[in-house]
Amino acid sequence: MTVVLRAVLICVSILLTCYVLRKIRHAKMKIEDSIFWVMFAFLLVGFSLFPRLADFVSRMVGTYSTANFIFAFMIFILLVKVFFQSVKISQLERRVTELIQTVALDREEDQEKEEKKRESHQK
Which end of the chain has the least Cβ crowding within 10 Å, N or C? Predict the structure, then answer.
């Protein structure tokens, strides 16, 4: 792994960590979600500080270069994250739909009760 790639990985990791911490401080991100990004940054730093580890894993996997392995590995991790986010979004959309339906039914019941009260007062 070249020195330039190592420096880029360290800089990106530091910037990512600072950005995530700022989002947490301003309550724009949940701590549970930020753990992934901080661990992602530490992984980048780990590969940067211990390039022989990345070289070893790269040879084990069979990639032509360490840089290709790192980029492919990071893309894989991000795709897994996107998949789990998609599952989470689908669950939230289902819950929102159920809540909307429940609220609509409750409002309908309230309107029916109001109409019955009006009818009973008019008699």
Answer: C
Distance CA 48, CA 46 (A): 5
Instruction: Identify whether the C-beta of residue 107 lies closer than 8 Å to the C-beta of residue 46.
Output: no
Higher pLDDT, 114 or 94: 94
- Distance (Å, rounded) from C-alpha 56 to C-alpha 76? 18
Which tokens go with 98? Answer: 């159920």
Length of the chain as a residue count: 123
pLDDT of residue 123: 63
The token duo for 46 is 């780990």
Decide: 54 and 70 in contact? Cβ < 8 Å. Answer: yes
Contact between residue 34 and residue 23 where contact means Cβ atoms under 8 Å apart? yes
The predicted-structure confidence for 35-90, as pLDDT tens digits, reads as follows: 888 888 888 888 888 888 888 999 999 988 888 998 899 999 999 999 999 999 99
What percentage of the chain's residues is helix, strand, coil (to nearest 5)?
A: 90, 0, 10
